[in-house]
Amino acid sequence: MSADPRPISDPSTLPIPDPLSVTSHFLLPAGRPEMSMVLSSPEETTIRPAPSWCDAPPVNDANSTLPDWYRDLRAAAWARYLALPVPNRTNQHWRFADLKHLAIEGRAPTTPVSDLVAEELIARAVSERPADYAAHFVFANNRLVHVEAPALPAAAVCVTMAEALASHSDLLREHFLKQGDFLGGEKFAALHAAATLSGLFVHFPKEAVAEHPVIVHHFVGGEGAAIFPHSLVVAEDHASVTVVDLFESVGGNEDTLTIGMADLHAARGGRIQYVAVQDLSAKGARHVHLQHSRAGRDASVKVGFLNLGAEWVRNESINRMVENGADGQIFSANLANDWQEFDQRTLQSHEAQHTTSDLFFKNALYDRARTIFSGLIQVQPGSHHTDSYQTCRNLMGSDEAEANSMPGLEIDADQVKCSHGSTSGTISDEEIFYLRARGIPAEDARKMISLGFLNESIDRLDGDGLKEILFTRVERKFASIV
Amino acid sequence: MPDSATLEAVTIDQDEGNFSYPEDYAHDAGYGLDEGTVDYISNIKGEAEWIREFRQKALKVFFAKPMPTHWASQDLENIIFKDIRYYLSKGQAPTRSWDEVPDDVKKTFERLGIPEKERKYLAGVEAQFDSEAAYSNVKEELTKEGVIFVNSTEGLREHPEIFRKWFGKVIPTGDNKFSALNSAVFSGGSFIYVPPGVKVKHPLQAYFRINAENFGQFERTLIIVDEGAEVTYMEGCTAPKFETATLHSAVVELVAMKDAKIQYITVQNWSNNVFNLVTKRGLAHENAEIRWIDCNIGSRLTMKYPGVIMKGRKARGEVISIALANDGQHQDTGAKMIHAADETTSNIVAKSISVGTGRSTYRGQVHIPKHLKGCKNNTECDALLINASSRTDTYPAITVRGDQHATQHEASVSQVSEDQIFYMKQRGLSEGEAMSLSVNGFVNDLVREFPMEYSVELKRLIDMEMEGSVG
């Protein structure tokens, strides 16, 4: 990861003109909400050749050693990838997204990093992990380069995907890629499923509890490199586990692609906390991350996203409360500057009674950054007594930053308490004045308020050591931009 | 699709009503839509060539545009365009006998206390409601002040110098599929011009004027309020309007010049077989104010998102919306606020009530482009669910560029609380009465924005809609 401030003048990253820009009100239809965006976008009239993200399945493992069920699944996923269209303007899941980021071409299986580089990466990863951890894995370009497991419960399984296919094939199969719904990222999901996966299979049996988090570093490097990290976390009855994925670049300015997935299953009374920290190179890196969770009876799933790096980020987070008493919490802190675009889509799906969920997203925007938040609370028929919240707050730090918010509700049940709120604004003069009156210079005051703004979301996670490494990273990025 | 009795009635009436037009035209206008239909309408109205071209161009756009079902209700697929009559001139309105009017509609009239004469008009038994006298009084007074208040045909024919400039400019033909349809076949509606500094004292009621003609399915309204002038316009009424025509698609354009104020009040209560797909938008110049007050009670599917483009400094836009969706209804309503100048402010307050299997949807857009200063938006949407099978959705979209603005959006969904109901029942109210009171309380602050006679009727109407929803 590189913290260098980048020049703000790359013409290739200019945003697509908005059909609603002031000058074009009468030239381009500014119709009903959505309609105009869809029917008259300049995107539609520009004929762009469909990009071929990958010409062949991005695999570099020995096919012959894989279980049959997995080979079949992979082949089917590749066929699905080929058949699925690249998302276009009429796809509501891509509303407001700058589709030029989807022009990804010629990705091939990534070549492994050299041993020398691996040593550096391990040292970096070790220096930036929390003091206490249950296990620490480091992957560099899809290859496992480092493992430590000082505090895993004896019965827990915590192995790489490759190892799981060999040693826990049946257990893996039971949970692997069972959730078929996406929020627009179907084609990415299919490519992910067709690829060689890095990442972990974490299975905590009944009542297994880890005090500290499982830390997983994923490094990607090399021009045109692609990695496919996968985290499958299963907590059986009353088990409890935290898994943290950290995504970082080997170097700066390289055109890389990460297509990651995280799949969380919490059975009765189980607790899972999953955190995805994305701190890739702010130039060149593209990051797609699709996360699913399924919370059973009285189970609790807590998900956190921290986005600092990458030129383009697409997060999809589907959280289903499938049995009575299930709880889902989703938090995100995003610090965007330069030409970064962070595109986040979420679904809180209530499918049983007395379920609760809370979503709390914070975006701080600088320079020409864009953020998109599209969240939906869905209360399915019969899911009475649902209690659900959704909040997205944007802190605008420049005159050219753009925040798009689409907080949605679909309520189909009775005795429901649901609300959402979305705000966009800037730091008020009164706040600055207050701090200045106490001897803090205006610049510092501004920084403190912005940091506090983002940290409010991070603070909802569990684990002081974990929160500490997140705060540090936010602060480091702040130092480079403010 | 009208039943056979109605069709028969229509055919008979056509023969009577055709005295002023060549007979072959009458047949051409029948069902379905093509270039001939558009020419037919244009010929009947004796329109200028540019309007005919405008219509024909719009027709092409209409055919070219796909149905917006990738985001909107799939129910739109059920509109059979070839089974629709696109123009009914005077005397051609479908008629039926009082006996054919459904009992529930009659009952509603009774309960609302609609005068006998009006009931027959509203039920479609009489093609016209005789309000000529009232209308001409209004007209005389307005003319003295220089206010022009005419229908679309007359407006474009008699005052092109005023209306042509803004016609189709706030809502371009290609805005969406249904604005294109309206642009091709529009008739009826109001064209209003208020000269500088004139503050029209009484609300202008479409009810008076449009009833004196044939209320259009594809009405076109254009209101231009010149500098410092003010007007309030009201359309629709709380009584259910029984209709056999299944598609209504209006276009309403408002232009508020510097310091002008426009308030546009709509109460929509079409019968439950009507698709009501309306495009409404206002353009507010410097320091001007446009308020849409919108109440949707009827129709099968309503899609309506009144908008304001705040083009001048300190312009203000407001949408106040009440929607009530009962069994089989989908009220897909909302608002659109486009901030295009510094210090513009907008406010959206939307409340919806879903009863039985009714579904209400809020869809909104707020757009604040970059390099502007001091724009503010406030959006509140509250939904009330009455039954377990009721449904509500909220889909706002807010785009803010730059760090000198403030927007806030809040939405909540709730039920009438059991405590409230219990409290009122304890004091001797029936559950139904208690429910009505609660619901009326929920929308009370918005209902007050309506003129008094409307709000009284609205309250009664809500009482009626709530009946049978509990227990």
Major protein interface: A-B, 56 and 62 residues
Number of domains of chain A: 1
What does the main sheet of chain B amount to? Answer: 11 strands, mixed
**How many E strands of chain A?**
20
DSSP, total strands of chain B = 19
The shape of chain A is globular
Q: What's the rounded overall pLDDT mean of chain A?
A: 88
Helix count of chain B, per DSSP?
14
Strand content of chain B: 25-35%
Distance between the termini of chain B: 35 Å
Discrete helix count of chain A = 10
Sequence-ordered SSE layout with sheet pairings:
The complex is a heterodimer of chains A (482) and B (471).
Chain A: H1 35-39, H2 42-45, H3 68-83, H4 115-127, E1 135-140, E2 143-148, E3 157-160, H5 161-167, H6 169-175, H7 186-194, E4 198-204, E5 214-220, E6 226-227, E7 229-235, E8 240-249, E9 256-266, E10 271-279, E11 285-295, E12 300-307, E13 312-321, E14 327-336, E15 341-350, E16 356-365, E17 370-379, E18 387-396, E19 402-411, E20 417-425, H8 429-437, H9 442-458, H10 464-481
Parallel strand pairs in A: 1-5, 4-7, 5-8, 6-9, 7-9, 8-10, 9-11, 10-12, 11-13, 12-14, 13-15, 14-16, 15-17, 16-18, 17-19, 18-20
Antiparallel strand pairs in A: 1-2, 3-4
Helix pairs in contact in A: 3-7, 8-9, 9-10
Chain B: H1 4-17, H2 23-28, H3 35-45, H4 49-64, H5 103-112, H6 116-122, H7 132-145, E1 148-151, H8 152-158, H9 160-163, H10 177-185, E2 190-194, E3 204-205, H11 206-212, E4 220-225, E5 230-236, E6 247-248, E7 251-256, E8 261-268, E9 275-284, E10 289-296, E11 301-304, E12 307-310, E13 316-325, E14 330-339, E15 345-354, E16 359-368, E17 376-385, E18 391-401, E19 406-415, H12 418-426, H13 431-447, H14 452-466
Parallel strand pairs in B: 2-4, 3-5, 4-7, 5-8, 6-9, 7-9, 8-10, 9-11, 9-12, 10-13, 11-14, 12-14, 13-15, 14-16, 15-17, 16-18, 17-19
Antiparallel strand pairs in B: 1-2
Helix pairs in contact in B: 3-4, 4-10, 12-13, 13-14
